[in-house]
Write a structure and sequence with these properties.
mainly beta; three-stranded antiparallel sheet; two-stranded antiparallel ribbon; 0% helix; globular; binds zinc ion
Length: 74
């Protein structure tokens, strides 16, 4: 997969995390829980880790992954 930002070939891998991952429109200082209707709770697993298949661009720092289908390859 080519990076949509700089068009260098991206490296396949896994984005792995502990508890919550949220993509929020504004920064939340205390809780990551969604506040805005456009906020997205990417993963909520308190007792197991999260594991997303995806691609990283080491040139510009972009990571792409499918949060709805975490095991699928892009
Ligand atoms: Zn890039």
């Amino acid at each position: 997969m080519k990076c949509p930002k700089c068009e260098v070939e991206m490296q396949l891998g896994y984005l792995q995390t502990g508890n919550l991952i949220a993509f929020n429109k504004q920064r939340h200082k205390i809780s990551l829980n969604p506040k805005d209707p456009e906020d997205v709770m990417v993963a909520r697993k308190a007792f197991s880790s999260n594991d997303f298949s995806g691609y990283i661009c080491k040139q510009c720092g972009l990571i792409c992954f499918d949060y709805l289908n975490p095991k699928s390859r892009l």
